[in-house]
Design a protein that fits this description.
Radius of gyration: 21 Å
Structural class: alpha/beta
Helix content: 25-40%
CATH architecture of the largest domain: 3-Layer(bba) Sandwich
Number of strands: 18
Amino acid sequence: MVDGKYDVIVVGAGPAGSMTAKHAAQKGASVLMIEKRQEIGSPVRCGEGISKASLDEVGIKPDKRWIAAEVDGAKIVSPSGHVFTINERMAGNEVGMVLERVLFDKALAADAANAGAEIKVKTSAVGLKIENGKVRGVKVISHGEPMEFEAGCVVGADGFESQIGRWGGLDTNLKPNDITSCFQYRLTNVDHDFRYCEFIIGSAAPGGYIWIFPKDEYTANVGIGVLLSKIKSPGQVKQLLDRFIAKDERLNKGQPLDAVSGAVSVSPPPDKLVKDGLLLVGDAARIIDPITGGGIAHACISGMHAGKVLGEAAQEKDFSEARLMEYENLLRNRLENKLWRNWMAKEKLITLSDETFDKIIQTLAEVGVEKMSVGNILKVIKSRHPELVKEFEDLI
């Protein structure tokens, strides 16, 4: 028995899913968006940073209801304490404002609903309907009841753990060197610089970094990401963060309001994001920045492009792989060069010693960088320490 038919079914109501649902519905497609949790946006599983420019690109108007803090920029701190300060314009997609993600995600879902999308919460995808090798819909458990929905296209917006792509035959497998394991506290009673997001690099967070993102004058998200291939024992990620907090006088009197853990991909782009009746967006599409681990901006960008293409495909009644390639091409043109370059840089950065990181950050602090990019950073370092960039020449 079929419980409903739609042009588009979006699995996952995070930023990528809601943006997809909104833009597809705006173009007249019938859209169902399902979310496995009973509350959209909860639990929060990221540092919650994004830039104003990223919101501008995808047409999201900042709303004080979901902005926890606006910051002037970022500080990158080396193992021995050298600080390179950059303003928001230079800092990239993760700096500018710190969100209240629960409220932000709900606001994007509300935008999708206002555009005409139907939403079902506490509804988990448990399989795809596939006929003659083509995805035709999705099987779900909704509030404990098994249901089946048909669709012209199923969108995998189901995050890092994405099953939709795997069920549909898209290769989204990851290597241990392309997964970062994360743990974060929301700490209150801390004494931090409310004007800046802070990134601490080096052996304190092997293959990743520690972050301090202000939420208000006394509260901050304090988290750590460690490359999975660098983890030697269970619980090590939390232990490393606890050790850092205990040594930092600004943080060691802080008290946790919540604690979350998870993982993010830090991989190169996958070979394919679409096939007949199937499309991936956001974290499911492996488009997180491999250096920063930031994904909110890229999720919104992918959802916007996907929704627009799906809306037009619905009008044409054509959800073939050939038709959906327009989305993949748009996304690759926007992000692929950056993702590949940052992945190659990440692969080399994880081999550097604390001493080398100190030299790099000290050089950047002294010389400065007009606009942040891997290439520009390497050019500055080469001017002072050419020996440090020999292995990075292909990225300059």
